[in-house]
Amino acid sequence: MKHRIHKVLAEHGHGSRRGIEQLIKQNKVEVNGKIAKIGQLVSEKDSFKIEGKSIFLNPKDQKDTRILIYNKRVGEVSSRRDPENRPTIFDNLPRLNSGRWVSVGRLDINTSGLILFTNNGELANKLMHPSFLIEREYVARIHGLVTRKIVQKLVDGVKLEDGLARFTDVQEGKKGKTNQWFAMVIMEGRTREVRRLWESQNLQVSRLKRVRYGDIFLPANLKQGSYKELSKSEVKVIEHL
After folding, report:
1. φ, ψ (nearest 5 deg) of residue 114
2. Do 235 and 68 contact (CB within 8 A), yes or no?
């Protein structure tokens, strides 16, 4: 039985549906020696290449779902490879016998903290999809005077270049002479959305860290650049969200 190519490759752990669609648009996926097309129907009997590497699909090769919690460092990029040879979030992950690690969302190069990885592309797609309304919590150090009016505006919603954006919650933290810490929750994962919301009020984000994704918190004892694998029981809870 044939299915859409992005679904088949995601189920075998070769990326999220969205990520695979991007690779197809960039002509980096081949099926039976020909450039793949968006929405193309394929089966596991077809031969595939992703970015020049041969991929063979076998239902027996599919492994149990695995999920990693990773503590990203500032300076690491969220892409799999970087043309400038900067460190990436994939560099320190354990090797998989088949498939590949798929990141659940991205963080920009200047943001640290929690990133989830899974070998299940379908699960990654589910965890990132806006319809599932999964909370992302950040802490940030903000330079400038943050008034109650500004906080209320950020909760009510601000029109950015890619549409309305808002925090669902903002909590005040430690205050300095020229800056203050805040904890905030957002329901989407648009590019630099947290930073752009604060910048829309003429405020500067000097430090930004993600500390929670859904019900998963960044462990306090997890060093930057390190990962922790979730137990099978923890994975099952996430799979049944």
Report:
1. -75, 125
2. no
Catalytic residue chosen out of the listed positions 61, 91, 108, 215: 108
CA distances from 62 to 100, 161, 168, 199, 240 (A): 11, 41, 38, 44, 19
H or E stretch covering 67? strand 67-72
The answer to whether the CB of 118 falls within 8 A of the CB of 102 is yes
Give the model confidence (pLDDT) of 142-181 as tens digits: 999 999 999 999 999 999 999 999 999 999 999 988 899 9
Closest to 80 in 3D by CA, of 32, 22, 155: 22
* Cα dist from 155 to 17, 151, 183, 187, 194, whole Å: 31, 6, 13, 12, 12
- Is residue 108 flagged as an active site residue? yes
Q: Please, which residues bridge with residue 77 across strands?
A: 88
- Going by the DSSP 8-state scheme, the letter that residue 132 receives in this structure is G
Whole-prediction pTM value? 0.79
Kindly write down the DSSP assignment for every residue of 179-216, as one continuous string. EEEEEEEES---TTHHHHHHHTTT-EEEEEEEEEETTE
What is the rounded distance in angstroms from the CA atom of residue 44 to the CA atom of residue 49?
Answer: 13
Place of tokens 């390190």: 226
Burial code of 72-96, b = ≥16 C-beta within 10 A, e = fewer? Answer: bbeebbbebeeeeeeebbbeeeeee
**What's the mean pLDDT in 33-53?**
90
Contact (CB, 8 A) for 57 and 12: yes
How far apart CA 144 and CA 12 sit, in angstroms, is 48
Length of the chain: 241
Task: Tell me what pLDDT residue 110 has.
Answer: 96
